[in-house]
TrEMBL record, chain A:
Organism: Streptomyces prasinopilosus
Alphabetical list of InterPro entries matching this protein: ANL_N_sf
Source taxon at top rank: Bacteria
Identification of the protein by name: AMP-binding enzyme
């Protein structure tokens, strides 16, 4: 329960299903597919576990016209279009009016105060990537000015994929040059930044020196980071800052690192905005939920009025943590890229 | 922290990484667990790194500790056991290496002085950079003297150990610290290949030991010294007397054939097949023993590496080289490791494209040479041994830039001495001369 008017999972689920599969309110995307599902979503999907009946249709988001995604019930509302990173080819498109913003409002309540005051600098993607809007919203909720730099993660992935690593490194330096220009004259207190870029920042003594004592908050996201590196960031590089992670992507929304709880064995546990964004950690072969503490593939269900996306197999693995509170989903720890048995090379890039 | 985990050492402080990797021995059983340093730890090490003037006594004392003492809970015997198990180097080679590093450390200052020109009043030789990153090899103990020399010249040093031998740099570091090296002078960061690349790019000077790929990657970086396969060779222009056969066998197979100065090409004015037959027969006498046996002379390798080496030898035979040795690669031993049996091949084609192949065990290819060829067929060659009565050949070899050491007669190609450059002058890489003109002296 989130305090945003959401009901328990069963009630929420029925509300979402009635919306997306109702002839007057649903999206063409789901209404067109309703009859070929092989089950009746309004009759046969009663509880959370029934979501597994749906196929993973997320690949279709690469090509479906966005008009098909917009629910008829929201015809008069302005919608935004966002895209996934495009790591595995053509990006997936999502549409969004208010649902995700409300998720961000909840994230703001989970994140620490970061010392209060000062401006935010977003060293991450904007443009088609929803994270830009989300972090801007976070900064605004804190009444902070929001600085951005141009940051194109797809270009970096292309450079790495085509074996042009030195050029990718040069691009990161170009991004950091822009960060330095801002940091030279502006009171930047909170950084949103990806681990590889943060690490490159720490390798520039002058820039690091400008920020090390000033920054009171660091939000890292976009790629994985080792536990050792996290510890180094907190204890050695930014001892005056609160360092917090956010896991997420264009399809599921953002899941902030929750506050430490007694018995935690992982330094960083991520929690989604339940019941709108629910994840399960599953065995990649059988699809069964793994035991608590075990690693598995991340399975995402996005259950909002703006978009309904059940059963999306993410390209990440994580350790399953059982949430302390109510909710059908899992918390996540030690997120890492999913490495298929085929041994395909994983390119994380800089976001 | 369990003492059996080798964790990164950052300016005297051991840093426990959550991420570790098992280091399997040549017999397939893990020998140690090694921390995997994240790139951020390299940044921390760089921030803390400061070179210092270190007295010779520190190195002399460190050499004694390195060779004999219990360091970080590890007696010298245990160190030898682990290096032997992880690298497959024969016990005797590791023991010799311990002594040779001890002796080298005792003479560092002398050696530094003797590798420089005679002192001149207003010339100072100073480091070309304040920091050195070095990616060390796992094929021998001796190359670790290289970074100790950099410390003695006042540089701060970060070592990325070779994957199979993290033991030697950690032990040498412990010896140096125990002997009084200021902690901020040195870090040892075990980690992935990529960490080594970052290290070499981040420090002001770099040294990398590696295969042909690593060498070509850094070939155009004047601040990185790349040491790769030696492609050491013999020019044999004499009849096969017992002395000559002794010298050939030694140059190919001494120290288990793993040094870059071990011969891998023999060019002869005689019949290559006959030379190869005689050499193969001599080398085939080496016993099959596990590396920890006191009489072991051959390197041992893991099952996986054995498969790769057999494949490499088969490829050379398919390419037209004729095998004269009894074995076509490593053979299994009872302890699960494989003895890398000597392999001698020959070809009558002195321009065969496979010439120059180097494998990490006693391995040589014999081919034809005629006086008319001169030194032209020898490509990049670390050590060239000239066995010939032609007095013009040694000076011609010295004049050939691609040949880095010239050995006349049967002397050992790896002979070292305080004044002897290995492959160019290391002091010449680490130091440069600067004019120093104090105002109290006439400037002339």
């Amino acid at each position: 329960m989130t305090g945003y008017g959401d009901k328990d999972m069963a009630t929420h689920l029925q509300d979402i299903l009635r919306w997306h599969f109702g002839p007057g309110t649903g999206s063409p995307f789901w209404l067109k597919r309703k009859d070929s599902l092989g089950f009746d979503p309004l009759r046969d999907v009663v509880e959370f576990a029934d979501l597994r009946k749906f196929p993973d249709l997320s690949d279709e988001l690469r090509t479906v016209p966005v008009d098909d995604l917009k629910p008829a019930g929201s015809a008069d509302s302005p919608f935004e279009v966002y895209e996934s990173g495009g790591t595995l080819g053509v990006p997936k498109r999502v549409v969004e009016h208010r649902s995700r913003l409300e998720g961000v409002d909840w994230v703001e309540t989970v994140l620490p105060a970061f010392g209060g005051g000062g401006h935010w600098l977003h060293v991450g993607p904007t443009g088609p990537h929803i994270v830009g809007r989300s972090v801007r919203r976070l900064a605004h909720l804190r009444r902070s000015m929001f600085f951005t730099v141009d940051f194109d993660p797809r270009w970096v992935k292309l450079l790495i994929r085509t074996d042009r690593r030195p050029l990718a490194d040069e691009y990161v330096q170009h991004v950091l040059d822009q960060v330095e220009t801002i940091a030279r004259s502006q009171d930047i207190r909170v950084l949103f930044i990806t681990p590889p870029v943060l690490e490159a920042l720490c390798a520039r003594p002058k820039l690091y020196g400008m920020l090390a004592d000033r920054v009171t908050g660091i939000i890292w996201s976009g790629t994985s980071i080792s536990g050792t590196s996290l510890r180094l960031l907190q204890t050695e590089f930014f001892p005056h800052a609160e360092v917090r992670g956010i896991y997420g992507n264009s399809l599921m929304g953002i899941a902030p690192q929750r506050s430490p709880e007694p018995g935690d064995t992982h330094p960083c546990v991520f929690r989604t905005f339940q019941p709108r964004s629910v994840v399960e950690v599953v065995d990649p072969d059988t699809g069964e939920r793994v035991a608590p503490g075990e690693r598995g593939r991340v399975l995402v269900h996005l259950l909002t009025r703006d978009l309904f996306l059940p059963n999306v197999r993410e390209r990440d693995t994580a350790v399953r943590i059982v949430p302390g509170g109510p909710g059908d989903g899992d918390d996540l720890a030690d997120v890492q890229p999913f490495r298929p048995a085929s041994g395909a090379k994983v390119i994380e890039g800089v976001y | 922290m369990s003492p059996s985990i080798l964790q990164p050492l950052v300016s005297g402080e051991t840093f426990a990484c959550d991420e570790t990797a098992d280091l399997p021995g040549v017999h397939g059983v893990p020998v140690a667990r090694v921390g995997v340093s994240p790139a951020l730890l390299l940044q921390l090490a760089l921030r803390r790194l400061r070179g210092a003037a270190v007295p010779q006594a520190v190195f002399s004392r460190a050499g004694e500790l390195f060779a004999e003492a219990e360091l970080a809970g590890e007696p010298a015997d245990e160190y030898r056991r682990r290096v032997v198990a992880a690298t497959g180097l024969p016990h005797r080679v590791v023991s010799d290496g311990l002594r040779s590093v001890r002796d080298g450390l005792a003479r560092l200052e002398e050696s530094n002085a003797r590798q420089l020109p005679a002192p001149a009043a207003r010339v100072r030789w100073v480091p070309r950079g304040r920091t050195l990153g070095i990616v060390t090899p796992s094929n021998h103990v001796d190359p670790h003297l290289t970074w100790a020399r950099a410390l003695s010249l006042g540089l701060g040093v970060i070592v990325r150990p070779g994957t199979r031998d993290p033991f030697t740099p950690f032990r040498l570091a412990a010896a140096l610290l125990a002997a009084g090296l200021p902690p901020q002078c040195l870090s040892v960061l075990p980690g992935a290949h990529e960490l080594g690349e970052r290290l070499l790019a981040a420090t002001e000077l770099g040294i990398v030991y590696g295969g042909p790929a690593a060498v070509s990657r850094w070939a155009d970086h004047p601040r990185v010294l790349a040491r790769g396969p030696g492609r050491s060779a013999v020019l044999l222009d004499r009849p096969l007397s017992p002395d000559v056969v002794d010298a050939l066998a030694r140059s190919v197979a001494a120290d288990a054939g793993v040094r870059c100065t071990n011969t891998s090409v023999i060019r002869t004015s005689g019949d290559p097949a006959e030379v190869a037959d005689v050499l193969a027969a001599r080398l085939d006498a080496a016993p099959n023993l596990p590396a920890d046996h006191p009489d072991a002379v051959l390197p041992t390798v893991s099952a996986e590496q054995a498969e790769r080496l057999r494949h490499a030898v088969a490829g050379l035979e398919q390419a037209g080289l004729r095998r004269h040795s009894a074995d076509a690669g490593p053979v299994p031993l009872p302890d699960g490791s494989y003895a890398a049996r000597p392999v001698v091949l020959s070809t009558s084609d002195p321009r065969h494209p496979s010439l120059g192949t180097e494998l990490p065990f006693p391995f040589a290819v014999v081919t034809r040479w005629s006086a008319a060829d001169g030194l032209e067929p020898f490509g990049p060659t670390l050590a060239l041994s000239v066995l010939s009565d032609d007095p013009g050949l040694p000076p011609a070899a010295l004049a050939e830039p691609r040949i880095r050491r010239v050995v006349v007669g049967g002397a050992a190609p790896w002979t070292s001495g305080p004044e002897l450059p290995h492959d160019g002058s290391l002091t010449g890489f680490l130091l440069e001369p600067k004019a120093f003109l104090p105002d109290k002296e006439p400037t002339g």
